[in-house]
Design a protein that fits this description.
Arc Repressor Mutant, subunit A; two-stranded antiparallel sheet; 5 helices; 42% helix
């Protein structure tokens, strides 16, 4: 992997690592915070390539509608629920559980 791709990957991982327990962020939000505006899908691709035993809290990232969109959806839902993040009609309330990195509060 070229150095520039590794750098992008590390920025995404760093941003995802900052999402507090019990909160979620969207792919687009992580892309913006990592300096990659309009690259939400790239964030999804990067997170989909994490090893199964990663400590990066990938499960705290959802789409812009608060939905789980990855193939490991059941595992992601279980992890979110273990943090007290419930889904209603298949969605996380971004208003209630969304991460606001400016304040640390949802």
């Amino acid at each position: 992997m070229p150095a520039s791709q590794e750098k992008v990957q590390r920025r995404v991982w760093q941003m995802v690592n900052q999402i507090p327990h019990g909160q979620v962020a969207t792919y687009g939000q992580i892309a913006r915070l990592a300096g990659l505006p309009s690259h939400a899908r790239l964030v999804g691709r990067i997170l989909s390539r994490l090893p199964a035993d990663t400590r990066i809290p990938w499960h705290r990232v959802v789409n812009a509608q608060g939905k789980i969109t990855n193939p490991a959806g059941a595992r992601q839902q279980q992890r979110l629920e273990s943090e007290g993040i419930g889904l209603v009609n298949g969605r996380v309330s971004l208003q209630h559980f969304g991460w606001n990195p400016g304040t640390g509060d949802p």
